[in-house]
Design a protein that fits this description.
The structure is a single chain. The chain is of the alpha/beta class and 247 residues long. The protein contains 10 helices and 5 strands; from the N terminus they run βααββαβααβααααα. β3, α3 and β4 form a beta-alpha-beta unit.
């Protein structure tokens, strides 16, 4: 890779909140820009070039024509990075996968649904090879900066392989199950410092399943606390619809 790699940002179906997190790095962004050249970043940069080394791609694939564009990005980039939950695991867009195509098309486009081709949402890795994943909805700015630094040093970026529960205990949070609430922190990849639980909510699973997630134990915990299958299914489908984890 060049001494000062060229980087570009792209987006598919998503809110672009992950790119906003990058833009909000403020002074850290200036540090990163000393080591890379931005050639395409619609939210903060005018102009575009197809000459880039690293492509950061946000959003999930929801239309047949998205695949050709993503494959072109893949062909141009030496490294392709999936940015955020929609790109890494399909994210909230996969909720529509549990409805009939006619149902979600008519709900979104009404009587003009036939004008807009669409299909089941999927993560980038369902279409092309992904080299690096940066998880979360939205991504953590600090984790983005660390992963970019590791990539520029030629290292394989480190990602936690343990569940959010570990970070939740370190933060001193009361387990949501002890409060009578369901939480996916027991099976979700850590790296967010249990931010949602610390703020009083529960883990929604936006960082995807932890590689070592014990689904059988999670099901047992949920059963012990009286959560029925419908309750579990609804929470699982919010971010983890593409995993088809049997909970």
């Amino acid at each position: 890779m060049a001494a000062k790699p060229k980087i570009a940002f792209f987006d598919f179906a998503g809110c672009e909140g992950d790119q906003l997190q990058v833009a909000n790095l403020e002074e850290k962004l200036l540090d990163i820009l000393e080591h890379v050249e931005v050639v395409s970043f619609r939210e903060v940069h005018t102009g575009h070039s197809d000459n880039y080394d690293i492509a950061f791609v946000e959003g999930s694939i929801t239309r047949p024509q998205d695949e050709a564009r993503l494959k072109e990005i893949r062909a141009n980039a030496k490294v392709l990075v999936a940015l955020g939950a929609c790109a890494t695991i399909g994210g909230v867009n996969c909720i529509k996968n549990f409805l009939g195509r006619d149902v979600y098309s008519e709900n979104v486009y009404g009587t003009r649904a036939r004008w807009y081709p669409t299909y089941e949402a999927r993560p980038l890795k369902a279409v092309v090879k992904v080299d690096v994943e940066i998880h979360g909805c939205p991504i953590d700015r600090g984790e983005f900066a660390r992963i970019v630094k590791e990539m520029l040093l030629g290292r394989v970026p480190w990602l936690p392989d343990y569940p959010v529960c570990v970070e939740c205990k370190k933060a001193g949070n009361v387990c949501r199950y002890h409060l009578g609430r369901m939480c996916l922190g027991i099976i979700t990849r850590a790296g967010c410092n249990a931010c949602c639980v610390t703020e009083g909510a529960q883990c929604w699973g936006c960082r995807g399943l932890a590689p070592s997630a014990n689904l059988d134990a999670a099901r047992e915990v949920m059963d012990q606390h009286g959560f029925d299958r419908k309750h579990v299914q609804d929470l699982m489908r919010f971010f983890l619809g593409d995993t088809s984890a049997p909970l």
